[in-house]
Amino acid sequence: MLNQIRVFDQVVVSGSFSKAGRVLNMAPSSVSRTIDNLEHTLQSTLFRRSTRHVSLTEEGEYFYQQSAKILLETNSLIAEMKGDNTEPKGALRISVFESFGNLVIASILPRFLAKYPQVTVELDLDNNIVDLNRENIDVAIRIGTPQDSNLKARKLMPNLTSLVATPEYLATHPNIDQPEDLHQHNCLLISHARQRNYFYFSNDSEQRRVSVCGNLISKGGSPLLSAALQGAGVLLLSTWMVEPYLKSQQLVEVLPHWTVNHSEEGSGEIYAIYKGMEYPKPHVRAWLDFLVAELKPR
Questions:
Q1: How far, in Å, are 62, 112, 225, 242 from residue 271 at the CA level?
Q2: How far apart are CA 298 and CA 159, in angstroms?
Q3: Is residue 222 within 8 Å of residue 102, measured between CB atoms?
Q4: What are the chain's domains?
Q5: What is the pLDDT of residues 116-156, one digit of tens each?
Q6: What are the residues whose beta carbons fall under 8 Å from the beta carbon of 240, sequence distance 6 or more?
Q7: How far apart are CA 283 and CA 269, in angstroms?
Q8: Is 41 helix (H, G, I), strand (E, B) or coil?
Q9: Would the pTM of this model clear 0.85, i.e. be above it?
Q10: What are the tens digits of pLDDT across the range 220-241?
């Protein structure tokens, strides 16, 4: 049937069976017979025919609009399977949550653009979940896999977390030797839907859930990190955010022998999410491969 659709498409473009036949190297009678068979399969009349030209019926117009998508996706898939080495080019729209976009993606984007000079990137820093189709986003970077089965995902890196504070804060507040000692401390908190906040601790032998509270709550991690660096309290945040400050010793780990998370299920993993209904275009594939290679060492 795919070949019939190709013939149908060419008749629409050419405006007649004879002209389509010349393009396809087919006799007009063969073109006509192919269209007859397609109409029989569909149980629909696709063309109004006269001796001079053909025109689409209402059903034919609808079929043309829908079948054009099939041909486009088929041609893209065939080119990919044949090893289409087309240079990546065009506009690439990326949505990424704000802190990861500023601290990680912004630092590697120049290398990607230098490698693929014909690609133009539009970066959208947004902590809200976006609809890739409605917002015309090529790739979204999020924590966790998508719920939409029409989307695909590639894992980039684990989202490990660290419990930290400044040396000055720890020197002027009660010791933190056990998870429950956090009851005496101001904890800088990521906003959650639930009314109470908990940190979940685990080690080789046990697990603990500790209720925590504090005077600063934020949906994004950047304001909390800024406050923590000024000695405002204890912070549980993604390791990729606090790692530079641990290296410079502006922050130090608290309870380093425990693994700490915001939920019982852990802190999840970071994924690149893209549309699953379309075969990735060269510049989208290039970005996905680049991301995996860049972030794998982390």
A1: 37, 18, 23, 20
A2: 10
A3: yes
A4: 2-81 (1.10.10.10), 90-159+268-295 (3.40.190.10), 161-261 (3.40.190.290)
A5: 999 999 999 987 888 887 788 999 999 887 777 778 888 89
A6: 100, 103, 104, 157, 159, 160, 298
A7: 24
A8: helix
A9: no
A10: 888 999 999 999 999 999 999 9
